[in-house]
Amino acid sequence: SSAELSGRVAVVTGASSGIGEQIARTFAARGASVALLARRVGRLEAIVKDITASGGTAASYPVDLTDAAATTAVAGEIARELGDAGIVVSNAGIMLPTPLGDLNPPDWSRQVELNIGAVNNTLIAFTAQLVRSAAATGVADLVNTASFAGRSVFPTFSVYAASKAYVIHLGNNLRAELGPKNVRVTTIQPGIVGTELQSHIADENVRTRLAATRDTIEWLIPQDIADVVAYAVGLPARVNLPEITVLPTRQT
Ligand code: NDP
Description:
Blueprint: E1 9-13, H1 18-29, E2 33-38, H2 41-53, E3 57-62, H3 68-81, E4 87-90, H4 105-137, E5 140-145, H5 158-178, E6 183-190, H6 204-212, H7 222-233, E7 243-246
Parallel strand pairs: 1-2, 1-4, 2-3, 4-5, 5-6, 6-7
The structure holds NADPH dihydro-nicotinamide-adenine-dinucleotide phosphate (NDP).
Keywords: Oxidoreductase
Protein name: SDR family oxidoreductase
EC number: 1.-.-.-
C-alpha cells in the first residue's frame, strides 16, 4: 500500500541531492517520517518543503557527517523530535578518482573521511536507536550505500573502490551482531547512476571518459535505487537482503 512505511522514522544521509534525495522522497511518499541530513541547508529545506506540500512528513538536519560529535548531536535531536530512527540510510559519499601519477592527497583523504568516516560516525550515532526501535516494533533497518566499485577493479578509482569495499565488508560483519537484534543490514551496490557525483571529478580525462559511457550504456536514475531500497526496508521482518547489486543493463 502507499503507506507501507507509515509509523517508521527514517534517517537519510546525503539527502540533499542524487540518490539520497530520491530515497528520502520515496520513503516519505510511502508514509515514513523522514530526517534529511547533508550540509547544504537550502537544498534540504527545499526538498522538505516539497515533501510536506505533497502530504508527507520530513525535517532537515544540516550536518557535516565527517564531524562525529555533530553527527551524534543531530541523532539526539532526531530522537527527541521524531522518535528513535527505525531506518537509517548511510548514503553520503564522494567519488574523486585519484590517478597515482597525479596523486592528490587531499582528494584521497576526503574520500576516506566521508566514505568511511561518515559511515562510522552515522553508525555510532544511530545504532542504539535502531536497536531500541527494533525491540519496540519487531524490525529496523541499516542500509549503507556502497558501490559496484567496491567489488570491481576500475583503474584510477583505487581509493574510492577501497572505501566502498570497506562499506561492504563492514555491513556483512555488522549483520552478525545486529541481525539477532532484528536490525537488518543491507548494503546497496549501484553501478553508474546519473547524479552530481560525476560532476565533482576534477580530472578532466576521467570525467570525459566516464561521460562517454552514456553513448553505449543507459545510466540508472536515482529513482531506480530508491525503489530497490524502499522494497528492501518494506519486506516482512523475517526477510533481509544483505547485499543488493543494481546495475544498468548494459554495464558489465
Ligand atoms: P551526490 O553527489 O548527488 O550526493 C552526495 C550526497 O552526500 C549529497 O547529498 C551531499 O550533500 C552529501 N555529502 C557530501 N559530503 C558531505 C558531508 N561532509 N556531510 C554530509 N553530507 C555530505 O551523489 P550520489 O547521489 O550519486 O551519491 C550517493 C551515494 O551513492 C554515494 O555514497 C556514492 O558513492 C554512491 N554511489 C553512487 C553511484 C553513482 O554512479 N552516482 C554509483 C555507486 C554508488 P552536501 O554537499 O549538501 O553535504
